[in-house]
Amino acid sequence: MLTSPLEPFYNAYIEAINSRSTLAPFVHDHVTHNGQRLTLAEYEALIEASFTSAPDIYFKVDKLLTASDSIAARIWFSCTPEKDFLGFQPTGKTVQFAEHVFYRVRDGRIEEVWSVLDTHAVAKQLAHTENGEVDGVERS
After folding, report:
1. Whose CA is closest to 105, among 135, 72, 80?
2. In sequence order, which ranges of the chain are alpha helices (DSSP H)?
3. pLDDT, tens digit (0-9, with 9 covering 90-100), for 97-124
């Protein structure tokens, strides 16, 4: 199987995130994230917020596809939020969820990011009460 040059690039980018290193070698000085133009510092702060809320969060590449200037990935997370996390209060429970994310790379660095987090999975895992209700609604 042939490896695209973007595969090792992306794996190094994810390793930089997990080690909380600067993303400057991987991301342009300005990046568009879900339609919002951000500086590199703002983009790094967005990612850092995950570590602030859930210090044990780990970004694991589950699926990875690359083509010319594009990357598509499914990132798997398992973490125990200690502070407000994606709009949900911590319960002490560990949650597992996925992010589906697409990138456009220009001149060897990420320029655009489109990200969808499975916040429904997080809500279900954090909101369960002892009687099996989620947000006051019985689920089977």
Report:
1. 72
2. 6-18, 40-53, 119-127
3. 999 999 999 999 999 999 999 999 998 8
